[in-house]
Every structure is written in C-alpha cells, then in structure tokens.
Amino acid sequence: MASSKLQTGNLQSSWSRFCGLTWGERWLLLQAFAFLLVIGAGLQFMNFQRLRSILLRSAPVSSNLPADAALQQAAALTRLVQAAAGRMPWTITCLVRSTTLWYLLRRQGLDSEIRIGVNQQGGEFHAHAWVEFAGIVLNDRHDIHRRFIPFEQIPMPGSTKKV
After folding, report:
1. How far apart are CA 76 and CA 133, in angstroms?
2. Global pTM?
3. Can you list the residues of the chain whose pLDDT is less than 70?
4. Domain-by-domain residue ranges, the chain?
5. CA angle 80, 84, 85 (to 5 degrees)
6. Which residues pair with 120 in a beta bridge?
C-alpha cells in the first residue's frame, strides 16, 4: 500500500512539474521523449557515424543568440532531456542521451559537440559520451575529462599525432 502511495505521489509531482512548464518547454520535453526513442532505435540498426551523418543533414545550425542566452537555452534543454531520459521505462545509455541532446540543440540552432571518451580501470575498457557547448560540459560533471579521455586527445601508438 505504501508503494502505491509513493508511486501516486511521484506521478502527481511529475504532472505538477510538467504543468508548470511553458508550452514551448512542454513541446521540447515531448520531442526529447520522441528522439530518445528514435535515436535509441537508430543506434540498434546503424552505427553511430551513419546516424550522426543523417542527423547533421536534417538539422543545420544557425543561431543569432548572444552567448549568454544561448548557454541558458542549452542548459534548459539539457534539463528537459535529462528529465525525459530519467522517466523512460528502460535505461537510456549515455550515447543515446547525448546524441538526443546534441540533435535537439542543433534543431534550436545551437552548435554543440558530442564527446566520446575512454578510460581503462582494473583492466576493463570503459567508454562514455557527453555533450559540450562552447567548451562547457552540459550533461555531465564539468570535470568528466579527468575520468574519460576524449578520442581526439588519445595518442596513437608509434605516432606523435592525436586521434
């Protein structure tokens, strides 16, 4: 019985937060839910580079917002995507969440970058994805670079160049 009350309380709390959003924010939240599904399915059927290429063509970037306003808009959209991802009935991977955020930012005219980093702990290889806007990490800890080395910064064996 207590579990039912807890679930009802969470549902009412989520609903009241949803109702507190502007119409524009509600529309962006619904888009976040939809694109989390579409991008998650897309990554099941094609590789990341192919999906990213398709998404790039469908959302060119062009924004005239001042830097502060653009950063505020990016942060607000990040919160909406994180909220949508947290309410999905299954776990959303960091790659799906980050690709969705990156794409929705592009649809808003905001250029950002998906970063994919790697590390090795205890003999195990780990990869992680996040989004940066104007050099600022949006959907993860600001110091994520300390835990995961982005691919473009990984030195290749026998080379002085970085990937």
Report:
1. 13
2. 0.82
3. 1-12, 15, 19, 153-163
4. 2-153
5. 115
6. 125
